Amino acid sequence: MNIREAKIDDLPVIATLSGELGYSSDEETVRQRFMKIKSDINHAVFVAEADSKEITGWIHVMPRILLLSRPLAEIGGLVVSEKYRRKGVGHSLMKSAETWAQNHNYEGIIVRSDTKRIESHHFYPQIGYDLLKDQKVYIRFFSCVTP
Fold it and tell me: Residue 138: exposed, middle, or buried by beta-carbon count in 10 A (0-12, 13-18, 19+)?
């Protein structure tokens, strides 16, 4: 397995994998978002590639700089193909995000996990992450059309 930076050619698979977790987006929407992320040196997207060159997962890591806390990197998304779960892909992707965060002088890395993602609640502690808190997250969307 190889972990590398994501490329435009990977976007169809990234969109498909996102759908596996219920975040379905069409390829064009994913492309538009990816282009914004890719142009920002403070963000990174990595993919896991099997020996067969099949993309088996992806991770997005970004800054989380707040007045209230130390500078951290945050996982914006982590998806592993269902057929490759529990085979070390997620751990390898997290390691690449951790390395990126350390190289960019962040003091740690934080990840949020929906309460319904029971598997991830076992995964993160197994790879050394501590539960910080349970919380509710609120959102308000605006009527803009830009993805």
Answer: exposed
- pLDDT tens-digit profile of 2-33? 999 999 999 999 999 998 887 777 889 999 99
146 part of a folded domain: no
d(CA 101, CA 98): 5
Residue 65 belongs to what domain range?
2-126
CATH number at residue 27: 3.40.630.30
- pTM equals 0.88
- Residue that the structure tokens 């009527």 belong to: 143
What's the domain count of the chain? 1
User: What is the DSSP secondary structure assignment for residue 127, as one 8-state letter?
Assistant: T
